[in-house]
Input
Amino acid sequence: MEITFDGGKVVTAHAHGHIIRTDQPLDIGGGNSAPTPYDLFLASIGTCAGIYVKSFCDNRKIPAEGIKIIQSYEWNKETGLPVNIKLDIKLPSDFPDKYKASLINVAELCKVKKTIANPPKFEIITSQI
Output
């Protein structure tokens, strides 16, 4: 993955042929043209769980169109970091009861969540271009 600086506060990741732009809000000097990196990080948690939920439904031929995941947080006021992240999988009334517990279990398999639970070591270096 390559990260580039594209003017103002825009920082872009180039990954597998995709461009993922980030920016900062207007009140801290950005153009608010894209999500912040932290918003993308938080979104990756819910969207990762969503991939697992969608695959679970697809494999059982259960329509997923009426399903939503509502992600919420409790924050540490001193650090500004989340201390609890809640994913509430909202299901339509006709979702089969027999699959509800399994749906929670499959959402728990999210690779982003597993990475947070088992953080990697970070190594930051500099080198010449």
Q: What stands out?
A: The longest strand covers residues 82-90. The chain has two domains: 1-34, 36-120.
